[in-house]
Design goal:
Elements lengths: L4 H13 L6 H28 L3 H6 L4 H11 L2 H36 L4 H34 L3 H10 L4 H21 L3 H8 L3 H14 L1 H20 L8 H34 L13 H4 L1
């Protein structure tokens, strides 16, 4: 069942309006990341503070970064600190994948049946988060390789700019323009990968192939939804422009726009993307599975 974009946006909005609990995965993601960040900082700083109580007063007198690094190395185990940071980053990525998979699973159930519960989030998250994490790792590697390939022809110009402080702006502007164009193309090309993975229960590589194939078959639809999502995000930031003169007002509005993004924009756009994939991939015709067996089709 194919829908025109206007109908898809309207029905997706109605699905979101009837399932405001779709915001829960995104709220939990932020809370989990904040807690992990605090725990990481405490875990890294505690050995340094206990081994050297005057750490901060002494470190404040060091102006040379090399001296500061040597001081920290002498005050504690930098290897342990690096390991803690890497573990925290990995935990954040896994949690983000879990709640992203959960949000898409909730959007799928809501799109099919009109209602979803947090049970759908836990079911979908448990089933798909490892594969989604691996797919994101593969996509990140592809992106880094692409950036490296685009950067290699400009290495000489970049090194010359750092060494002489007199950059040639022509090559640098071209390099930046290529990176921006590459980022936009990749964001559109791979936009459907998480939805293919969760909705169809695919593996990391299969989801990437399916996401790219979906884009190739539905270029205009994917681009239009991407454009709407970008327009909504830009509109929220644009509304902050009148408050940029006041620091307090700017901070307050930034916090408000962040809340709006988490509670409204993120779940709404997830429903739109999920509905786009399901309508164009023929998933709307699936027989509705009983509620207590939801995990089987998520």
């Amino acid at each position: 069942m194919n829908e025109d974009i206007g109908t898809l946006l309207r029905r997706g909005f109605e699905t979101w309006r009837g399932n405001l609990n779709l915001a829960v995965p995104f709220v939990l993601t932020i809370v989990a990341i904040m807690l992990l960040t605090v725990a990481m900082v405490l875990a890294v700083m505690y050995p340094l503070i206990t081994s050297s109580p005057d750490l901060f007063s002494t470190a404040g007198d060091l102006e040379d970064p090399q001296e500061l690094m040597e001081f920290l190395q002498g005050a504690g185990n930098l290897g342990l600190a690096a390991a803690i940071i890497l573990i925290a980053i990995l935990a954040m990525a896994l949690l983000s994948s879990f709640f992203t998979a959960g949000a898409i699973g909730m959007a799928k159930v809501a799109t099919l049946s009109g209602k979803t519960t947090l049970k759908d989030m836990w079911s979908s998250g448990r089933r798909h988060f490892i594969r989604l994490f691996l797919a994101e790792v593969v996509m990140m590697v592809v992106i880094l390789v692409g950036v490296l390939v685009l950067t290699l022809p400009f290495i000489a110009d970049l090194m010359g700019a750092f060494e002489t402080n007199e950059p040639e702006f022509g090559p640098l502007i071209l390099w930046i323009a290529l990176l921006i164009a590459f980022s936009l193309i990749i964001s559109i090309l791979l936009a459907m990968v998480p939805y293919a993975l969760v909705v169809d229960g695919l593996g990391p590589i299969g989801a990437i192939k399916a996401g790219i194939a979906f884009f190739r078959s539905n270029k205009m639809d994917v681009f239009l939804i991407w454009l709407v999502v970008m327009a909504v995000s830009v509109a929220i930031q644009f509304l902050a422009a009148p408050f940029s003169g006041s620091e307090a007002a700017s901070a307050a509005f930034s916090s408000l726009s962040g809340v709006v993004s988490i509670l409204i924009v993120a779940p709404l756009t997830t429903v739109w993307w999920t509905r786009l994939y399901m309508t164009r991939a023929g998933k709307m015709a699936e027989a509705e599975t009983p509620r207590d067996e939801g995990v089987k089709y998520l």
